[in-house]
Amino acid sequence: FSVGLGKRATWPDDYFSHQHSFNINRYDTENWYGSGTPLTGIVNGINYALTIQRNSVFNPIYPRYGSTFSLNWEMTPPYSLFSNKDSTYYANPELTDEERFKFLEYFKIKTKGEWYTTIADNLVLKTKFEFGLLSEYNKDIGLPPFERFYVGGDGLQGYSMDGREIVGVRGYPNHPDLLSGSSGMPIYSKYSAELRYPISL
After folding, report:
1. Taking a C-beta distance cutoff of 8 angstroms, is the pair 145, 39 a contact?
2. Which of 29, 73, 108, 179 is the most exposed place for a label (fewest CB within 10 A)?
3. Residue from 196, 175, 186 nearest 115 by CA
4. What are the residues whose beta carbons fall under 8 Å from the beta carbon of 194, sequence distance 6 or more?
């Protein structure tokens, strides 16, 4: 379940916009290995997300100049801080993942930027960066087994069965987790530069 509200802004200038969303995800797992050990049971993820974007790209079909920046902040309530359990509860090595991850708690930060620079006529240089970080509030609970970054392949999202975010990188295979058994990464960065010239406009 997700509900969101977005709005164009006039401050600091007319290129800004912001979007707020409230999201509820419910995972019914059976022998799920996203956390390194088999996870079976119900996992609940409730989060609020805020995205601030500035887009001054001219002619989005074939941009020749301008830039776009975005900053996204996603967070769940810090349940372990509000609970009546003491600090040793989550540090207990006998605590099952089903209990540890009954309610996901994390915060995630993502940012990206693109620049388009005209070199001559329709010859354009595009430079881009991306960065993502998934972190926890409570070190004893650790990182959640969901909501991680998977880098590689064409970047087509397809379906997201575990809140994963697929980051396309040319020259690497799709679904690297299926090939290597990876459970995704909590941090990534990507930098690229392209020299563009249109065959036809």
Report:
1. yes
2. 179
3. 196
4. 125, 126, 127, 128
